[in-house]
Fold these 2 entries.
Entry 1:
Amino acid sequence: MKVIVIGAGLGGLGLAHRLIRAGFEVEVHERDSAVEARFQGYRVGLGGHGLAALRGCLEPRLLPLLEAVSGDVAGPGRAVDAQLNLLAETPPRDEGRLFDRHVLRHLLLAGLSGHVRFDRKLDRYEELADGRVRAWFADGSSSTGDVVVGADGMGSTVRRQLVPSVQVYELDVWGAIGRTPLTERFAGLVPGWSTIVNTKQAQLFLGKMPFRRPPHEAAAELAPDVRLPATPSYLRWVMMIPHDHPGDFRSLEGDPEAGLAAVLELMADWHPELRALVRNADKHNSGIGPLRGTDPVRPWPTRAVTLLGDAAHPAPPGGLGANLAFIDGELLCAKLIAVRDGEVGLIAALADYERDMCEYATEALAEAMKTLESFKHLRTTA
Ligand SMILES: Cc1cc2nc3c(=O)[nH]c(=O)nc-3n(C[C@H](O)[C@H](O)[C@H](O)COP(=O)(O)OP(=O)(O)OC[C@H]3O[C@@H](n4cnc5c(N)ncnc54)[C@H](O)[C@@H]3O)c2cc1C
């Protein structure tokens, strides 16, 4: 049975590992020209089932490396005002792990070189009379398989063809994101797992990505065939700005330096250390843009084409998208194994997957939207 996965993001690569180990023929097609082609390096927090699903998709020999390049979630969460006065503290957290998305993507590429093709942007798919599916790429090439899995992220080309009714829309919040090297000076701003700076105009979320070991060094020792980038530990910050803010942020999309300048302008009377944090950000790896979301995705008429991760349930950035992508891969692989073993037909298996996935994703999405609502509430009451 041949599975064609569209998108070599976290979800697509996690699924590919599982399928290959289960003996499927697997091709992953990625539109970017290489893993480094686009900056994707912010931290993601994984915990519970999501973290277990990530660990479960990797070859056991890679697990020590995975642990070595993770960061601990520890200590209390804090809310402070713009002058760093403590407003509130939440109980310590010591569950889950932090990962850098770029490092994790490199790690997930380990052992997949014969399966992943870069520079292969899907244009459309075609359902053939014999039940198989042909994927057509922008360069005019094609590939035919028994199943096509759209793991091609929030703007999914596969979803646009499969479930065109789903609309991704802008939420009424803008986000500016950046990262600053984690020096002793700035570490004090986040003594626990997170610090939120709460003001009337905007909120700034600070979180550390403290690698247990430098990724490239850990790889050289624990899995010398794996190349990981030399990313230093950093402090990730996200500023949430209400849409009704008079600033013209739309013109700043795609211009990181102008985005940083706009953030600093918003912080004009904030504590000098907070301003210094943003001033010292990695200028090429920051950005500003509207947060996007969608209505819950309902099960659709099942075909030999399905969706996984952000392609299936586009969610605003937060603590769940990557978790869900790995859980989807675990569930989908189990269903395809049942097909391979002759226990169930392909379409029935995919229908089961889509029903379960839509159910838990809808719940998770509702939680994410609640968090966003609480942000809006905080902004008006801060
Ligand atoms: C700032 C930020 C912070 C986040 N924090 C967290 C967190 O703490 N915890 C958490 O769980 N989640 C978090 N997320 C969400 C998480 O990163 C995503 O949910 C997750 O990466 C989704 O994985 P995916 O594989 O579905 O999609 P992606 O990682 O987006 O991968 C999709 C891939 O498909 C490729 N592609 C797109 N179109 C095509 C095409 N036509 N043909 C071929 N390839 C294509 C893309 O280039 C990309 O490589 C965060 C997201 C952001 C932006």
Entry 2:
Amino acid sequence: MSSSRRRRPWTLRTKLIAQLVVVVAGVCLVIGVVTVLSLRSFVLQQLDTQLVDASHRAQAYVEGGGSGERGPHPGPDHRPPPVGAPGTGPGTVTARIVDDVVYDAKQLTLQAAEQQDLTPEATAVLTTVPVDGQGHSKDLPGLGEYRLMAVPTRLGVVVTGLPMVLAESLQTNLSWVLSAVALTGLVAAAGTGILIVRRTLRPLNRVAATASRVAELPLDRGEVALSVRVPESDTDPRTEVGRVGAALNRMLGHIGNALRARHDSETRVRQFVADASHELRTPLAAIRGYAELAKRSPEPVPPDVAHAIGRVESESARMTTLVDDLLLLARLDSGRPLERREVDLSRLVTDVVGDARIAGPAHHWQLDLPPDPVTVAGDDQRLHQVLANLLTNARTHTPAGTTVTTALRVDGEDAVLSVVDDGPGIPPELQPSVFERFARGDSSRSRAAGSTGLGLAIVAAVVAAHDGVVSVSSEPGHTSFEVRLRRFGALS
Ligand SMILES: Nc1ncnc2c1ncn2[C@@H]1O[C@H](COP(=O)(O)OP(=O)(O)OP(=O)(O)O)[C@@H](O)[C@H]1O
Ligand SMILES: [Mg+2]
């Protein structure tokens, strides 16, 4: 199942409240059912007591011969209907059964307390009551639920019944009242639960907020001031949330120390590289000077010595470039701000491509400039170096006859500088790391050109220091470097 279709997980708060509501609902249900059932059994007991009385009355009345009129269905012995017994309550049902024949099946009506014959269906039900002197609940068609009791007498079986309407309505009413109370209780429990849970979880939210603030900090480079901490009040180890808060603070402390150590060591290395490069410049200048002096000596020198002096000169020149590059990178790494002056990129491109034409006459150098000058805010010399490095690469890493097109265009707020050549391209395995330090192709051309692999690293560092972006795409026959810089005066 895909993650988008998966059900959203419940929050801790929703889970706690749902569990609380389920528990309260369960308790209410049990209380309600037990109350209704016990009330029902109590009311039935009462009714049965009344039923015994009523049954005795009817029995005595029948056996005693009665005093009232005869009913419309006099029994075989002309006894009066038992419903006429004095003290019979409204709603009472009575009948006498002799040899499976029902006589005097009557009801004393609820409203007028008059004797009324039962319907044949209701009468039929009376015959099904077991003759055991016990109360039995039965439904009399047209009259509702009745509690019926049949007792044997000398003059047949006398059946007496009392309406259960009171017990029924009591049970129904109580059920309604209990449901209403339970529902109110549930709503109140849920409301209180929400308040309590929200209050209880507030410290946890604060701890989570601290963790998110840390997650938003850029921790990957530079000096990181990891001063964010969980508030003191949420770090009491005697509480669960406090333990989480304290653990988070301890972890942040460790991470802060580790980051500080990393930054210190980076700074030391950078400082060492900068110092070493700086210190190396003077002896290198001296070596170059002495080599120059030796070359100018009027005395004849053997050819192998002359060759050695030439090598010393060229290698020291190469080392000087390397040392200068290292020093520049160390300075850029330390975040020292660059100059921010208006630089005319159009003029700079014209100059650098002019230099490249002189340095690489075997290549075809093309220029594509917009009619209006394009200016950016930055460091003239460093930007010069960026373009010079790109053009040097296009010259040294491609065969003679390659066409190199340097173009400048305006794209909204940006000035876009591109250097495109139709040479063999950058080896695919080198492409992902081409802007890293000392990354270079090991073709014989590169080695012969005395490359060090710092040229593009400097390009990337200088462009980044100008808040710009450099990108490369390369395939055989088409290698393109693109540098995107903010135009002068554009809002940053
Ligand atoms: N235009 C290009 N065509 C083909 N390969 C290139 C091109 N530009 C760069 N490369 C490859 O990328 C590598 C890295 O270039 P980078 O300029 O960083 O170092 P380098 O030119 O080797 O040495 P350095 O510039 O320090 O003298 C090069 O060694 C080369 O293999
Ligand atoms: Mg280079």
